[in-house]
Write a structure and sequence with these properties.
14-stranded mixed β-sheet, 393 residues, 37% helix, 3 domains
Length: 393
Amino acid sequence: MSEENIQENIPIQDDSYLSILTSTVVENYPKYAQERILKTLEKNEVVKLKTNRPNPKQVNFLDLSSLEDSERQLIVGIEQDNRVVKRIEKEEFLKSYKFSALFAVKSIENKDIEELQKKGKITDFFAGDDVHDVLIRNHRYQEAVPTKYAIGNVLMFKFSILLSGTKPNSNERKEVKFPVLGVYFNHLGALEIRMDRAKTYFQEDEFFYKNQIDFVINWFETNLNCEVENISLPPLIEYIKQNAEGEVNIHSQAMNLATGGKVVLDTGINEDYILPLLGELKELIKANQELFDYSPEIKKLLDGFISETETNADLPWIALIWKGKDNANTTVKFKHNYLNQGYSFWQYYGQQSDMEKMDYVTEYIVKNQREFERLQSNGAGETRETIGDTIDN
């Protein structure tokens, strides 16, 4: 079947929105992400992708089998069938993102959310197939209408920011939809703000990601009457490093030394995740304990050097790796005191997948924060800060 003869299914009236969504797929979606959406649609018998496969059992499926390229299949699907658009909008909730930042939130009342929905200031994803995300064109949080999506104890608000920019070496101006999620973990008392990388010609300045975070925080505090507080991660990550018992390891870290020197330590392909220099010195001492027992002064000097370097060095960022099954590891880089804002900016390495890996890391961090707080309140152990200092007002 030719492109011109593909049947139109459940059309959308807002051609502008469809045009921007199409541009977003072309500009921002890698091939594997396009194929991921198409395969889900095929599994749900919404589309047919290959001519050599039987027709779906659904009567009103969309036949895209004459189109070989995944990008073209997705573009035509957006134009012809509302179910394809809804799947893309759903994927924006369920996929993983490149960047995030975590904050503490004391409480959010359901009645406030319900009131905003009644006033049309929140859209419910499940309200109907003809209900779609509202684009935020002027970046004013007072006028934003996010889309809500609930899964168990997790409540997500999607802010569909409209970005525009001119491609380099071209006069061609592009507009794309840039989802920013505010993910509220009710059982954790935490708000995580997630977003992907934006191409540089869509960024107005070096504060682009900070501005998106500010936007979501302002909306939450203004509309949901909650207080969003920074979480200082350095002392907590130090606690995790000392108590992870192999589940979490240091992948790499940057150090600004007291002497003025700067160094980046990376474990590379080392399966034991031993950092070069300091980590190797520790392993050397451990492996040759008997020899150092005969030279306690040398061991004392080395231990002192390691301790002084680690204590006095400023750590602008550190990357941790969570071990998963079948080498499906999750690596996250934490950039501390991001742009002097007091919070850490998280960067996930690797390809886009599903939200579960981000949820797992967030829950791991918060649960360890609670344990850290418990130990501090009991006066157990020595740390650089009490948990009361980890929440910056």
